[in-house]
Amino acid sequence: EVLSSVVEDVGHAVNRNITGAQILHELLSAPWLRALLKVRAGSAGVNWNRHLSTALLSSHDSVAQSDYGPVLPPLPDELPEDEEAMRIVCLVKNNQPLGATIRRDEETGDIYIARVIHGGLADRSGLLHPGDMLVEVNGNPVGGLEPEQVIQILINSQGTILFKVIPNPAQISSGQTPVYMKAMVDYCPQQDPSIPCPDAGMAFSRGDLLEVVDQSDGQWWQARKLPCTASCAGLIPSASMLKSKQREQWWCQPLHIHTCIRPCEDSSLSSVMLYSTGPVFLSQHVTVQNNCSLLVPAGFRRSFRLWRRTSYRRRRQSCTSCSPNTTLSTPYEEVALYQRPPQENHRLIILVGASGVGVNELRKRLIKLNPSTFQGPVPRVLIVNKSFRNFGEYKGHLYGTSTDAVDDVLKRGRVCIIDAEAHSIQQLRTRKLKPYVIFIKAPSPESLRQTRRDARVITNFAINRAFTDDFMELEDVSRLIEAKYKQFFDTVLVNEDLQDSCIQLCSIIQQAQDEPQWIPVSWTRTEE
Ligand SMILES: Nc1ncnc2c1ncn2[C@@H]1O[C@H](COP(=O)(O)OP(=O)(O)OP(=O)(O)O)[C@@H](O)[C@H]1O
């Protein structure tokens, strides 16, 4: 016991680089010494504590006084004062990449380490740093060579690689605190001509959670995808770099201004109306007889039913040419883990999915199952506007649910569940509501055919008609919504068997309320 605590103390001395501590640590950790002490302690009831401490301290002193370093030859007398220290770095090549990139100073022809990839071989060695000048690789002088030639030397080297480097005097500390970001765009390094080293790049898609470990370079960050198994980070464009790429892409597009990629104009929360169980529905944008304008957010969902069933095809045709990547969105959203304090309102639960996939059914079942916990907001008549009659077949009344109705539910300590159109999620993403978005995904058409034998849908022409050949279309639309909005989804639930889906949904909602979840950092800041 005493020995363990002494070994621990000496271990701290090793960390502080005290001379001789390492040797002492190794001696004390030797199994034979432990065994010997055990025997001695058992045979003699002496006070080992004091004796051992004295013995150890005196042995430390003698070890510390000994000179275990190599005997170096004396320095030559005529050594120039500005002589630069050279570091010799020996790395053993394995099947991992070296984890460093190089650059050439065009004026002097010198080769420098441009960046060291976090967690890579070079980084773990702790001996190569950005800005170090590469003098030799395996005995070959590299000054004046092209980076490709240096890389060729590295490729041809087997086993141990010996670098001679002049260390960068102003070494940048790599100990940065990681920052967590959600990708809001897709990125592929292999298709990016501006990346310094495509092999060191990391591809990501919208919705991926990234741990950004190095932001010291204003243009190229280093990050890992979470949950990650790889220790080595990859290069990703910085936020400003991605934004300028987006702008370039935007201006280079052929001039077909498409409303789908216009930023949302009306984002004030007070004007946002949510799910409605009422039979009539409308968006202010529907009046524009343009296919794509139908995608501009208004916030209603269920109320669109009648109109929506006929608009699938038109919407799909008009918008497939519109890649989600063309949207000028924020490329990364900084996120933080958030655990809802018990005294705070529950997070708003938003269900999203293609019409007919079962969003409404799941929501109803959940509320019925546990009415004291779950509740939907009460729909209200919003507007009475004769100009919208074409779209509303219920005496011109427009139904929707205001944010006040959501507040009412939350203030009662219940979990408020709404279903919303995917395009209205962005308006609902607020600090106050902290919505948790669940995408209800359509299973395969075969599975739909199996599970929806008795299901009914509402269309323009029939209320409660049986599903006929809708399955391919349903799956198609579901895929389209997922592709376009997946960056806003917290969870995806495939609605195959109704009962299973209900159980899964219950547990997802419980986790959303009671377990730590990633949310935008801006939602965690206190209001000013
Ligand atoms: N997993 C399931 N298995 C069998 N039937 C289902 C399943 N999910 C939903 N249904 C049935 O499918 C039909 C359509 O569901 P629902 O009305 O909930 O669709 P929705 O996604 O809300 O679409 P809309 O917005 O057009 O109303 C209903 O008859 C419902 O009972």
Automatic annotation (TrEMBL):
It comes from the Eukaryota. Gene3D superfamilies: 2.30.42.10, P-loop containing nucleotide triphosphate hydrolases, SH3 Domains. Residues 346-510 form the Guanylate kinase-like domain. SMART domains: GuKc (SM00072), PDZ (SM00228), SH3 (SM00326). Keywords: SH3 domain. InterPro entries: GK/Ca_channel_bsu (IPR008145), Guanylate_kin-like_dom (IPR008144), MAGUK (IPR050716), P-loop_NTPase (IPR027417), PDZ (IPR001478), PDZ_sf (IPR036034), SH3-like_dom_sf (IPR036028), SH3_domain (IPR001452). Residues 176-246 form the SH3 domain. Residues 88-169 form the PDZ domain. Belongs to the MAGUK family. This is Membrane protein, palmitoylated 4a (MAGUK p55 subfamily member 4). It comes from Anabas testudineus.
